[in-house]
Amino acid sequence: MTTTPAKYPLEIREARSDADYHLAYPIIRQLFPQLDMQTYARRVFVARATGYRMFMGEVDKQLVGLIGVIANHNLHDGYVTYIEHVVVDKKARGHGYGSQLIKFAEDRALEEGCQLIELDTDIGADSATRLYENAGYEKSGDYYFKRLREENIGSD
Known about the structure:
Elements: E1 11-14, H1 18-31, H2 37-49, E2 53-59, E3 62-74, E4 78-88, H3 97-111, E5 116-118, H4 126-134
Parallel strand pairs: 4-5
Antiparallel strand pairs: 1-2, 2-3, 3-4
């Protein structure tokens, strides 16, 4: 899919209220369809308390995309911003909004003294891989995980 330039300017603002996070839920569900509202609300509460920030991209006051980031200090890289997710409403894809959200996160990270952004993608997430590679991201390794118990979406 070829990305066309955005027809309308993307206004990006930080989600700060419960109402903002409620507004973001339908778009988040496009990336995480198994995420019910109760689990989402609980996870947002904990994530916000531990440094997670969501930024909302709007066109003409209509939400079209989101980016979630969290800053972290670690031993191997120092101060790092981690992109938790980038999701553009399926009706608004292909207009460069995802790229604008990523650029916004990069600029914010630099302003805050961060020199490195990290992220991961799922196997088979080809459109996400293209988005990040087109934005200049390089693959540096593989992501591993081990499920310690069967996840029940309603229990954290």
